[in-house]
Amino acid sequence: MEPSPITKKGLFSWILTRYRGLQLLLLLLIVSTILFRVLPLELQKRIINQAIAYKKMDILFLYCGLYLGAVVLAGVLKYVINLLQSYIGQRILKELRERIYDHILTLPISFFRRTPPGMVIASLTSELSAIGEFLGGALATPLINIFTLLTFAGYLFYLHPLLAILSFSIYPVEIIIIPFLQRRYNRLNRDRIDVTRSMSNVIGEAIAGIHEIHGNAGYRLENRKLGRFNEALFTIRNQMNTLKFLIKFLNNFFQSLGPFILFLLGGYLTLQGRFDLGALVAFLSAYEKLYDPWKELMDYYQDLQDSHVRYHRIMDYFDIQPEFLLAPPDGRDPLRLEGDIRIQDMSFIIDGEIRVLDQVSLALRSGEQLGLVGFSGSGKSTLAMVIGQLYSYTTGHVYLDGQELKTLSKQDISFNIGYIAQYPFIFDGSIEENLLYACESLVPGDGGSAVPLPGRDEIVKVLELVGLSDDILRIGLNTVLSPDGTEDFTQRVIRMRSTFFQRWGSELADSVNFFDLNRFQEHISLGENIAFGHAHVDEYQLEALPGSRFFREFLLESDLLDPLLGLGEEIAVQTIGLLKDLQDDPYFFELSPISQAEYEEYQEIVSHLTKAKSVGLKQRELDALLRLALRFTPAVHTMAALPENLERDIVKARRRFMEKMLQHDPGAISFYRPTDYVFTQSILDNILFGRTKADRPQAIEKVREKVEELLRQENLTAETLEIGLKFQVGSKGDRLSGGQKQKIAIARALLKNPRILILDEATASLDNASQARIQQLFSSELKGKCTLISVVHRLELVRDFDLIAVMRAGKIVEMGQYQDLMDRKGLFYELAHGA
Amino acid sequence: MSLHTEPKKECSISPGEGRCEMSANLEIFRNVSAFSGIPIDRLKLLAYLSKRVNFKAGEFVFHHGDLDDKAYLILSGKVQVIREFPDHSILLHEFKEGDFFGGLVLLSDIKRLFSIKALTDLECLTISRKSFQKVLMQFPEIALKLLNPTIKRMVQMEERLLQAQSDQCIYG
User: The complex's ipTM?
Assistant: First the structure.
């Protein structure tokens, strides 16, 4: 453990302890740059007093040369200093962000129940970035400016002490007034951060609940919520700006008082002959040069205050300690437990009085199976989570192999316990990454590998055990491959295609529309039916076809243009009428060839149509209608009918199109030929070389079974599984079904071979067959190998368990085996019959 | 369009001039008593979102315990309602052309309580829970109109089930 927690560190401790070498270099550069800042002033004086006054050309050249050199050097140094400064700042920021994130992730789960994600996100991104900007210059900026200020002040003093003292007299006034204003500014700034956080929470919540908002059309309501904070932010920002610019104004005002005194007094002295003109010019220049460092110091002061406020706002918020040790103390290896569990008078109390768990006691020997049942809210899930070290208990004891659970570290637990939640979280990434998540977490950060990651065979075995292989094979079969590096695989798929057709072609004739040059395909669009291939050139992509001259001319020659335009018109009129008032919900557009975004465009076309019966349509509008007709897929789009003539004419045109295309631009389109792999379609569709009929729900299943059989025969199962494992599951695993997510979570836990397995209604969203399979797994494969704790709703799932604990209001009220509890006719009996 | 007057083969129920499947579905819905109280433009939306499915004699439409999410209206054919057990099955009821079944899943995410097996070749019109609920969100008033016949159906089913149980008791 860290000796002093990160949240207790001060802002400057980051700067003073990091990159000292670089910071020293920075300091040296700063000192040297000051020399080059003062030198031009002295040169200026000498150019006027010596070179110009005595008309000495050679001295003029010398001083001018020196002047140029000094200015260039000062510029270059400033550039290097800036680079170095921001580099240091960003390095510290990077470390700061990682360290805080590390800390946040280890905080107790209860912390996250009350902390909205928007708040954590804002803290780690925008708030922290602003600090980073400041950090780089935190030491350099004040130093460089104070040095400069002192140097110029000294130079002024050297030129004329009295004048210098008089012109400095303004600064003390500023030093008193400005901090007073700044303190008020800081208070507002703290309020601003709080309001901004609340506002990000509102936005975060709205995005998480976007379904509900769309469902209720709650747009205005949500906007009003945001509006409250937005209004507050507006007010605070305005007040802050008032103060900020007031400070600026005062600064500028006092600054310009200086030259006033100088002109008056310096002019008087010069007129009297007690001060020479060159010195006055130098004095004025030097005084003006005072302005920059002074202003920078003022800005720095404001940034410092701002960063302090931000930094402490962040650190105070996360100033909580993790409930458990993260790693074993004294650097010992994580424990390997047997899986004995003993709970003694354990209570879990929240808010000081609510006993979520009340005096729970139970004992479980290694390899035994415990079922936790009870009405919802009885504490059964909480008990499972306490054993899984997700919550800490308040009083009493929980012993794992005789060791108090509270004293064990997170690593000890993760090596020995697999916890599967009711709604497991699946991370964005591939299925494989998700499966290995638990195992990869066991690999220590320093790269040493305490546990080897499971090999392919082991993964495949576990997938089979939890019934996930079929899902993954299916996902693999639905993958659209890219042409590079898959040559060998696609060649084998094409061979499978012909085997498949020979073997099952006639059997499946009424379930599948096989691709056939001479047959119309109801399951692909009319455009695809005509082109019968997929384009490599933009001009012939389905969406671009209406704009292609070659294609339009072809349609005209084939007498297809008019019927297609007529069809497009019919689709547009029907769809626009149907979806009127429903444009807000994208769902209604899923079965329509008009997309949600295009609704208004087509609405306008339809209104033109009713006015001037297609005569007055512009070319652009005709193209749009043709596009609809080409998108039309008879098996999907039901709002218009396709005349049989058109079907026949399209098939006739198809062959001619292919011939013409091969002359016009060979290679632009890969036609659907039995010998070619189609890279725009899934592996399954490539094997099938056709489409299952949409009205035959059983057909897909039948086809899959046969394809899978063939895959096994051709030894392609492993490769397809491999492709499926690479499937990207999307944010939160949204591209998977609920059952698939749960099976992945079970496999994920099993892969690390835990001694204790905890399931919190982990099979609830599985269908009966999958549930039975998992049940079977517990009663045979895993029986005796690991201690099992299963929270269930359906009582028959724990029929064979060694022990069943029935819970009510945080207490275990009955405990025993299934039949005992039934015979007792108590709460368990009631649960069995009431539910 | 006027040149092409041949009817589309899918529109077999009400063959009209180039009638599309959606209109045919609408015509069917209008003749179903369960939908009779729903205004025609709402019904048209349901017709647009519904899909036709076909089963061969002997195939199962769904099994007891499945998470199937569709309600079915039989266009042609007959089905058996079965409760399957590991070693035997009980025949509960039969549905025929014009019957509407499985409507309960439109309202809630539940597992099937029984299995449906096609007795003859079967054609059904289906509507999914998501489609139904989307329409409901737009036009909530149709909920009651659909709930009524579904609940009546549930009562009938339960009646029959109870009858079957008491019969079993009598005959041992």
Answer: 0.80
